[in-house]
Amino acid sequence: MEKITYDLIIIGGGPIGLACAIEAQNKGLNYLIIEKGALVNSLFNYPLYMTFFSTAEKLEIGNVPFSCIAPKPGRQEALEYYRNIHKHFSFNIHLFERVEGIQKQENGLFKVTSAKAVYSSKNVVIATGFYDIPVYMEVPGENLPHVHHYYKEAHEYAFRKVVVVGANNSSVDAALECYRKGADVTMIIRKGEINDRVKYWVKPDIENRIAEGSIKAHFYSEITEITANEVIINSPDGEVLIKADFVLALTGYRPDLEFLRNAGISIGEGLSCTPTYNPETMETNVTGLFLAGVVCGGLETHKWFIENSREHAVLIVSQILQNR
Questions:
Q1: What is the tally of structural domains in the chain?
Q2: pLDDT cut 70: percent of the chain above it
Q3: Which domain does 181 fall in, by range?
C-alpha cells in the first residue's frame, strides 16, 4: 500500500472527474484521479463523427473556454479540449488503471484497490459515468460475433444488410450514417415512434428517410432471436424474418451498479435503481464517499449530462472541507 493518504481519490477521468480534480486542486486538496482507460475514456469510445447535443460553452470546465467554429462540437474537438485541460492543470492522474474495489476501514479511511496498487484516502468520488455496460436484449444469438453493442463508424457496414435496434440518439445516428455509406438499413423499434430525446436537427432526417422507404423500420417490434444471417422479430404482423449481415444492438448503457453496492452505497428499488446520495452535498449513505455526474441517475442515464453535473464538483469539495 502507498504511504500517502490522499484527501480525495476520484474514480473516473471523464469531464466530471476532471472538474472534481480542478476544484480539489483549487482548494489545496491532495488528490488522485484513477481512470480505467484513456483520458475522458467514454468520449474517446463515442462514434468517430458524433456531434454533441450541447454547445461548446456547456462542456467547459475550470473556466477554460472551449473554442468551436461549428454551433455544436464533435467528438474530435471535445477530445482536443479535454487534452488541453489536462495540459493546463497538470492533473495527478493514473490512466489505464481499473479500480476493483472501495472499502471503508475502521479508522475512517478508504482503501481503494486497483489492478495495479492499493491506495488510502480520506474521501472518494465515484464519477464513472454509464457507458461501460450495455443494456442487453437477453435473446438467443445476442453473443454472436456479428452483433455489436457499440458503434464506431459506418465504413465496415457499407453495402451490407444492417439491422439497427432502438430509436435513441445512438441508434438514429448509426442508422443514418450506415445508410449514407451504402448499407441496407432496417430499424427495429419497440415503441411506435422515434424517441423524443433524439437531437432535434436529426429527428426530422430519420423520420423522412423512414417515410420515403430509404430506411426500413418495424415499429412496435422486438427481436426474439438472432441467427448467423437473420433476425427474428415479433411485430404487429406476427413473426417476421429479416436478413442481417450485422446487428447493431444500440439499446442503451448503464452504470456498474454492483460496483456501487460493493462500496456500501444503497441502491433504490424500482426501475430507476437510483443510488442514495444527498443532492446538496453529493455524499452517499457512506460518509466521505461521493457520487458525481451521470452515475447519480442509476438507470435513468438521460437525467444527468456534462452541462448540468459540472456543479457537483463544487458541492463535493465544499462538503469535504466542511467535514474537515
A1: 2
A2: 99
A3: 136-249
